[in-house]
Amino acid sequence: MSKVPQKWLVVITVLLGTFTIILNNSMLNPAVPHLMEVFNADAVAAGWVITIFMVTMGVTMPVTGYLGDRFGKKQLYMAGLALFVIGSLLGSVSWDLPSLILFRGLQGIGGGMMMPTAMALIFEVFPKKERGLATGIYGIAAMMAPTIGPTLGGVIIELGSWQWLFLCNIPTGVLGLVFSQIYLKQTARASNLTFDLSGFVAVTLGVGAMLLALGRVSELAHLQDPMNISLLILGLIALMLFVKIENGKEQPLLDLSIFKVPAYTYSVLVASVSSISLFGGIFLIPLLIQGVYGYGAIITGLTFLPSALLTGIFMTVGGRILDRQGPSLIVTSGLTIIAVATMFLGFLSMETALWVIFALNAIRGIGMGLSTMPATTTGMNAIPEKFISRGSAMNNVLRQMSSALGIVFFSIYFEVRRSQIVSANGLTLPEASLQAINEGFIVMGVLAFLAVPLGILLGREYKKQAKKEQEALSGKLGD
Q: What's the CATH number for 255-479?
């Protein structure tokens, strides 16, 4: 390790922890039916194993900016990873479903502390011109883990026991802690900060209620549940109150003025669209492979592997191009590739060969790799350095909510449209499922096409900022 530059050791360190967290969460998705059998629980109760992680992670993220600035980013990252490891160890010895849900909540808090902090730690050690490649490599964890996790989780459930879903986190988590202690630098602490309690209460209530409601919804009937409707209304009101509170604070929990920076706003929108496309695909493709074409879980998992591999490769390619040429070409190309490949997935038939789905999903992976992290990096570069921690926290919160919203939308759309098609056209269930899935991909493709101009706008803002920085540098040299 001594020959690896210090800054790249930071990337390796945070990638190790982040990959562990995202992989573990995605591994548990296929395990829910098995956990229902183990703990003799219904689907709603067992579903809390997934929901509680999403909620506790989401409500923790907004406060990470303050905590990182107040106590140091290294300390916050290590505390989050340690909590995640402890939650994993306790989760493996859970004696009933409520205890398992409690320990998953601990894991979520740890993950919420780590995810935004990881990006901020990378920005601390890399200059602007090198951040594209650095975040591209780091982004492999964020984009590849959700596609690999379900397959790995299924294999563990079939060949081992559910406890290994938690125990497998411990070696990599402990290794991540050792690396963090050795390779992460101490960051500056701000002692004059005041904690925005009212803003914290409002955003915790808002994000928590919204994520809780979305996590409880998987079909249209759930959306009509008075509890879910109440949670959504409560979350919306709390978030509106949060915006009002933050605009009146001298030291807000999340400084919303960063949305006045157009490049940051565009980057958040691109990240949200990418998250909807990614998780929408993760939801629809298993239904397509298993429910329509009748293949098993292993083939379903293999469908995602080429996409995951190409996403990782093209994230590094996209990062290099970003550092050299800016975001306009790379982000626009990535979004266009996602849109075109997704639209083609909307025209499948019962006779479509399996390799076609493999290929189209792989092409979508190329688009994800080219667009997501370059857009995020450009947006983060555009805001003042002092806002990096809070900008990363905001980006992660909105991405988390977009992912949940995407899954909810496409699950409800699939359920409703399939029923309508069976009733109206008299098609078989697989044929109706295929038509509903096709329409879902078309909706997803249209959304991606609508996002393409954001890449152009992001490029314009990048050029404006580069010109200002050049003029400022010339002015200093002239003095």
A: 1.20.1250.20
